[in-house]
Amino acid sequence: MSYDSTADTLRHIRRVQELLAACAAELARRGEVHDASKLGPAEKPARDANPPNFEHRFGDPHVRSEEMKHAIASHHAVNPHHPEFYGERGVAGMDLFDLVEMFCDWKAAGEPYRHDSIAKGIEINSSRHRLDPQLRAILINTAQRLGWM
User: Fold this and answer.
1) Distance between alpha carbon 141 and the CA centroid of its chain, in Å?
2) How far apart are CA 86 and CA 90, in angstroms?
3) CA 142 to CA 121: how far, in whole Å?
């Protein structure tokens, strides 16, 4: 009697489907609460008092008020999709879900500037957060697969 791999393969496929569904559920949960702290008392007053200036290019250094610097530090302290959340470890402290949320955040953050792209965001943030070239390439490949580049 010979072995038929069909049952084992179908079991494996179903298990991977379950695991992918669990990952998708975690990403959906994160999407529901993404940046909610921006609406709280530690950040919203500063954001209201300091509207964004889309005349700047994404990543350009510009002067921020002390109030806004405090709001941004507060934001980073409670949102694990920011490398600053992990202190000195930065991106190395993140998990895969943090990384995916960060990547999507970079895409969305650059869109209001209209003259910037996810490629520019990856370039700026790769340098800023000292991303490994392999991770940088993965982010570029992903943006290309999604049709963002």
Assistant:
1) 15
2) 5
3) 13
pTM higher than 0.85: yes
79: nearest Cα among 124, 42, 53, 130: 42
Instruction: Give CA–CA dist 1/21, Å, rounded.
Output: 36
pLDDT tens-digit profile of 73-125? 999 999 999 999 999 999 999 999 999 999 999 999 888 876 668 998 999 99
Distance CA 105, CA 128 (A): 15
What is the sign of the dihedral through the CA atoms of 100, 103, 109 and 114? negative
* Residue environment code for 58-97, b if the CB has 16+ CB neighbours within 10 A, otherwise e: bbeeeeeeeeeeebbebbbeebbbbbebeeeebbeebeee
Decide: residue 18, CB within 10 A, 0-12 exposed, 13-18 middle, 19+ buried. Answer: exposed
